[in-house]
Design goal:
The complex is a heterodimer. By secondary structure, chain A is mainly α. Chain A has 28 helices and two strands. In chain A, α16 crosses α22 and α18 packs parallel to α21. Chain A is elongated and about 155 Å long. In chain B, 75% of the residues lie in helices and 3% in strands. Chain B is built from 21 helices and two strands. Chain B is globular and about 65 Å long. Chain B starts with a helix and ends in a 6-residue tail after the last helix. Classes of the chains: A mainly alpha, B mainly alpha. The interface between A and B is large, with 47 and 51 residues.
Chain lengths: 657, 487
């Protein structure tokens, strides 16, 4: 059984892939079957993920892998494979489970779309690629799936191609992440060049194991940073985060699945997966590469939380919230709290999917309106959505005790506080926690409380196919707490491969109160500021310049447009000019010289050589004319000529003898 | 057995001249299929792919040592395979040619037969004869059946080819005079003096590389591709550019190993410039075929970079890229030339973006998305397998080159997505403003069966090799390992 699932782990991504292909085959013909196929594929993948989860419980730190060669050259081979360990198993469960409910939700949300079948094919394809990322035991295979995930994301962001903004967002997402992926790609090449293998685990010879790490030495820092640039691209870390808010142009289930729960977490997962590369040669748990991770994470978390405060689009607020939370996870990884970061990733997968689906339900109910300033008072019209959204909001904000997000956030704060280099990230993260609670409170008040504004007039609750997934995910956001508390930190120890203890006295740590106080401050402040219904945002009224700065996303898009993109444009223009005028001009010049030479030769030919030949020819012609005149056809003339000839011959003969 | 590809193709070409018009395309298809089948069989049954093993050897002009001498190894077999594949799809995409079809397919088959000849020649003079044999039919294909500035394109292409041919011919004569043989086996055993190699290598390499689109002698390629009829572009990008790269590897690098090692970094430099530069130019083009033409130059830059690494991975990857680019470029040109241009009569990206082609030609959109993904180096397609192999090799030889190449890959994604978006996924905004769409959906002829077949064939090939590059690399790498210039 165990050996079966390990050697057939590929089935987990293969099943959704197969359903994607099956859906595409009879394109646009069967509506129901498409969704059915996708969901059956997802359920099968979930079942397999559970099967794969069981063996990892056997012993702490259990790990098994299966490798094979992609191609060989001489005695060398480029090998790929898959691995099953607690990290992979936990990710598999989260992705398949959350994915399943998002698939179900999509049936309702996409019901009226004419490309319904294609949507489910893409979703299944995405799911397959994402599961592939998780089980890869080789950086190469991981990169392959990583790029396919990016392709799926491109297709899904641009799914509504009739919206120009969607097409532009899809392109932006693809190219921005591609810049990060370029770093990852270079990291792969470098890693292969120095260690000769791209396998993570290979019975002691993998690049994450002793022998492989020894071969790397000092280059590990650079390789780790290059890999991090790929992770930053996918996980929307500063300065490559700009694509993620725009990606909200895609259908909301896509935002929930790809741009909140799974794909954007892939960067965090990648850093966790190759963590030995980051921590190689660590002193006190610090390396230069990990410090970079910490600071990028801090900047991202704070910046995005601030921007979220000044956004009006319900999905964009959540998008910036996602960016901010991903930054938080990165900080956690960077300061050494690997388990805490992954725990937050898993919890975030549930509650952020919940929030996005909730926002989808709101948007659906408000007839495709996304501006929170036009909503309000929805709590009575959409009770289920309100209730589940509130749970999501409290989990995200980190309201203590009941909600999973609180425990993981507490753990992250704890890990950050322990960082020996500087206390700065700790304080900044505390500010981040307050900001998170603040912007979520703002959103709640705008959407669900106060007076009903324009779009909320005819709002209605969504159908059960959409609300049941909300309730499921909300329940999970709470139930997950069981394995996250410091008293029985099962998930923490499971991920790190340690023995699990249960000590009830550890439940309440000092950090619990710090965290609770911060959240209370954030929510209290939010209620205080946004309590009154007003036409303009109170924040915009008091600090208009700052608000505008944040509302315009710190003008980073404009900055990029005037630097990087402009540079690429200019380079293209120069190259095009070179080709059109310089090189082609050169060719034409050579041709021109040839023609001039040709004219010269032709002249010489005409006047020099040809004149002589012409002269000779006209002489011959004259002679011919003279002779032909003699051929008059009169016998007398001929006879005369013969007689003259005979006479001359006779005279010649006589003279000779 | 593989030698039959040449005979069958030429026989088919001759047969075409004697038969009536209606059967022309069927004869062409049968010939192309026969060649493809033969090359496929030879590819899978070959036992010893590591040596350039003689197939047939007959004296031709004994006093000069010229022989009719054919040989094959894993590299030749791979390239013969892509020739066969491209040939079949090129005929399928020419199914609608009704202007002098017999003649058209005659010239087409001559290009194909000559290409098989180049890939299998083991005699320097024979190789040169086949090499030059390809140029003439190309001229006629473009000048008679071409479009857009066709006389200029045809003339530029031919002149460039002859320029390259002259450089090559010079060095062939010099090599013959020095070594006293034209046999590639003997020549590769002969040790040319270092002084000789130092000048002969760059001249010969450049001569061949003209046809591979080496920067800055690449400008024939975009104009030629644009002017050529669809099948012509497919063959030009799919096969003819490979003739140059293959001969550079088989002849120039193998015969003058020291000269090669002396000059390799300059080749790498030109290759890298080609990758980035052509990608940048492609970003600015308005004509869809020009975009693809420049993308070809960019992709061939990878081949040159791979060759310049002088290690097994780099050169093996270069050969893989020759195969991969052959398939992908053929598909791109097929979509742009046959599926789109023949129906819309425009290739201007701004005009195309107003036509809602996705709705009118869904299969064309599908093929183009696949081809774009493959061209951008999305894993799962052959382009990725080839490029990562090349870059793994390059990392060992020129780490800096890899960094610059990376910029080219981002630009590559940018221009491909731009073309894709403009052609098929255009903005609704541009639809509403100005004149309504030029072409109503009904007027476009749906994609025909031969087109679908040809496209599926190419898509299948790029997917198989992308997922399982071992299939080709198991044949290519032993042959590369046998070469003596390896570092």
């Amino acid at each position: 059984m165990i050996s079966w699932i390990v050697s057939n782990l590929w089935l987990i991504p293969a099943v959704p892939l197969a359903s994607a292909l099956l859906i595409l085959a009879p394109a646009n013909s069967w509506h129901r079957t498409a969704a059915g196929l996708a969901i059956v594929g997802q359920i099968a993948a979930l079942a397999l993920a559970v099967m794969a989860f069981l063996p990892t419980l056997e012993a702490p730190g259990w790990r098994s892998f299966h490798n094979f060669s992609w191609f060989t050259f001489g005695e060398h081979a480029l090998r790929i494979g898959w691995v099953l360990d607690p990290l992979a198993a936990a990710m598999l469960l989260m992705i398949t489970f959350v994915g399943l409910w998002i698939f179900v939700f999509s049936i309702g949300y996409m019901a009226g779309d004419k490309n319904f079948t294609r949507f489910f094919a893409y979703l299944s394809f995405f799911s397959a690629a994402m599961l592939g990322v998780v089980i890869s035991n080789s950086l190469l295979l991981l990169f392959v799936c990583w790029e396919l995930v990016g392709l799926a994301s491109y297709l899904l962001i641009g799914f509504w191609i009739h919206k120009p903004s969607a097409a532009a967002a899809a392109k932006k997402a693809f190219i921005t992440t591609r810049i990060g992926d370029l770093g990852l790609f270079l990291g792969i090449l470098w890693l292969y060049g120095s260690s000769g293998t791209l396998l993570f685990y290979d019975g002691g010879n993998g690049c994450l194991e002793k022998a492989g790490l020894l071969a790397l030495g000092a280059s590990a820092t650079f390789i780790a940073l290059l890999i991090f640039s790929g992770a930053a691209g996918k996980s929307g870390q500063f300065p490559l985060h700009v694509w993620l808010p725009d990606a909200m142009e895609g259908p909301t289930p896509v935002s929930a699945l790809i741009h909140a729960a799974t794909m954007v977490a892939a960067g965090v997962f990648l850093v966790a997966r190759v963590y030995p590369l980051f921590s190689l040669g660590a002193i006190n748990g610090m390396t230069p590469s990990l410090s970079v991770v910490v600071w990028i994470g801090v900047i991202t978390a704070l910046m995005a939380a601030l921007i979220a405060l000044a956004q009006a689009d319900i999905k964009r607020i959540l998008a910036y919230s996602t960016v901010s939370q991903l930054g938080l996870m990165m900080v956690s990884l960077g300061v050494g709290g690997v388990a805490a970061g992954i725990m937050h990733l898993l919890a975030h997968g549930f509650f952020k999917a919940l929030l996005f689906l909730g926002s989808g339900s709101v948007i659906h109910g408000c007839h495709e309106e996304q501006d929170i300033r036009k909503m309000g008072g929805l709590r009575r019209l959409m009770p289920v959505t309100f209730f589940t959204y509130a749970i999501g909001m409290m989990t995200l904000s980190g309201v203590p005790l009941l909600f999973s997000g609180a425990w993981t956030k507490e753990e992250i704060l704890h890990a950050t506080e322990q960082w020996p280099r500087s206390q700065m990230p700790y304080y900044l993260m505390m500010a981040g926690v307050v900001l998170t609670a603040l912007y979520m409170t703002r959103q709640m008040i705008y959407v669900f409380f106060g007076n009903r504004r324009a779009a909320a007039e005819h709002a209605h609750e969504s159908s059960p196919v959409m609300t049941v997934p909300l309730m499921m995910l909300a329940a999970c956001s709470i139930v997950l707490s069981v394995v996250l508390t410091p008293a029985w930190s099962w998930l923490h120890d499971y991920l790190l491969g340690e023995q699990v203890h249960f000590e009830i006295e550890r439940l309440i740590q000092p950090m619990f109160f710090v965290s609770a106080a911060l959240v209370a401050a954030g929510i209290g402040l939010g209620i205080l500021i946004y309590r009154k219904d007003g036409e303009t945002d109170p924040f915009a009224r008091t600090l208009p310049a700052l608000f505008r700065f944040l509302e315009n996303k710190m003008w980073l898009d404009e900055l990029y447009a005037h630097t990087v993109i402009a540079a690429a444009r200019i380079a293209a223009r120069i190259a095009d000019f070179m080709d059109r005028y310089f090189w082609d001009g050169l060719v034409r010049a050579v041709g021109g010289i040839g023609q001039i030479f040709g004219m010269f030769s032709a002249n010489f030919d005409e006047r020099g050589i040809n004149a002589r030949v012409d002269g000779g020819a006209s002489g011959t012609r004259g002679l011919g004319r003279f002779l032909s005149a003699r051929h008059s056809g009169q016998i007398q003339t001929y006879l005369g000529a013969v007689a003259v000839g005979m006479l001359m011959l006779l005279l010649l003969y006589a003279w000779l003898t | 057995m593989i030698a039959w590809t040449i005979y069958l193709t030429f026989a088919g070409a001759l047969l075409l001249l004697c038969l009536p018009r209606p059967v022309a395309r069927w004869i062409a298809l049968a010939t192309a299929l026969a060649g493809f089948g033969t090359s496929l069989m030879a590819f899978f049954t070959a036992l010893d792919v590591g040596t350039f093993a003689t197939i047939i050897r007959v004296p031709w002009v004994p006093p000069l040592g010229m022989e009719y001498h054919l040989a094959a190894d894993g590299i030749s077999l791979t390239l013969a395979l892509v020739t066969g594949l491209t040939a079949v799809s090129a005929v399928l995409f020419s199914w609608d040619v009704d202007h002098r079809p017999n003649e058209f397919f005659f010239w087409l088959l001559l290009v194909i037969g000559g290409s098989y000849g180049v890939f299998l020649s083991a005699d320097l003079f024979l190789l040169f004869v086949f090499y030059e044999l390809v140029i003439v039919p190309k001229y006629f294909l473009i000048a008679i059946w071409g479009s857009t500035n066709k006389e200029y394109g045809a003339m530029k292409l031919t002149l460039y080819s002859f320029l390259g041919g002259t450089l090559v011919f010079l060095t062939i004569v010099a090599a013959y005079v020095t070594a006293g043989s034209l046999d590639l086996h003997q020549l590769s055993q002969y040790k040319f003096p270092l002084q000789f190699q130092a000048w002969a290598f760059p001249v010969m390499f450049l001569g061949f590389a003209v046809l591979a689109g080496i920067w800055p002698l690449h400008t024939w390629a975009p104009t030629g591709h644009v002017a050529a009829p669809t099948a012509g572009s497919m063959l030009l990008a799919g096969i003819v550019m490979k003739l140059g790269a293959y001969s550079a590897l088989r002849v120039a690098m193998n015969l003058f190993p020291d000269g090669f090692l002396m000059w390799s970094k300059w080749i790498a430099l030109l290759g890298v410039i080609g990758i980035v530069y052509a990608a940048a130019v492609a970003l600015r083009q308005r004509d869809l075929k020009f975009v693809i033409g420049y993308s070809s130059v960019s992709h061939m830059g990878f081949v040159l970079l791979g060759l310049a690494t002088a290690n097994v991975l780099g050169i093996g990857g270069a050969v893989l890229q020759m195969f991969s680019h052959g398939v992908i470029a053929a598909l791109l040109f097929a979509v742009a030339g046959r599926m789109i241009y023949r129906r819309t009569h425009t290739r201007d990206l701004n005009d195309l973006s107003r036509m809602r082609l996705t709705h009118a030609l869904p299969f064309a959109a599908f093929s183009f998305v696949i081809a774009s993904a493959a061209s951008m180096g999305i894993p799962g397609f052959s382009g990725f397998a080839a490029e990562i192999t090349i870059l793994l090799g390059t990392w060992k030889a020129y780490p800096l080159a890899v960094l610059i190449t990376g910029a080219g890959m981002v630009l590559g994604a940018a221009f491909t997505l731009r073309a894709l978006k403009k052609t098929f996924f255009s903005d609704a905004a541009s639809l509403s403003e100005g004149t309504p769409s030029v072409t109503s959906d009904e007027r476009l002829v749906p994609i025909t069966f031969p087109e679908k077949l040809g496209a599926c064939l190419l898509i299948f090939a790029t997917l198989v090799i992308g997922l399982y590059p071992k299939l080709l690399l198991d044949r290519i790498l032993p042959a590369v390992e046998a070469m003596k210039f390896l570092k």
